[in-house]
Amino acid sequence: MRLQQNVIKTGLRRINSSYSKIHFSDVAKKLNLQNPLDVEFIIAKAVRDGVINATLNHEGQYLVISVNYPSCLINAIRKRKIFTQQTSQRRNLRRD
Fold first, then answer.
1. pTM value?
2. Number of structural domains, the chain?
3. Which partner for 23 in 47, 62, 68, 87 could form a disulfide, CB atoms 3.0-4.6 Å apart?
């Protein structure tokens, strides 16, 4: 039973990294789960436990996945943006 739960959590993490929105029925197919009611419960528990970062749309029967980028990636993007802005400003000063 514990192995099955770990396999499901791993599958949900992979789905989390691959999709931005996915229907419960598609999650059930990918995880090879038979009961659609179980899928919604399993996903809700995974969200509550912090296994995945997402929100559930119960009426539409789909999962909306939130993207969290690592802080090191965000910092690298900021530094690159500042560098390109400074380079552009210097280039424009030389033209004048």
1. 0.62
2. 2
3. 62
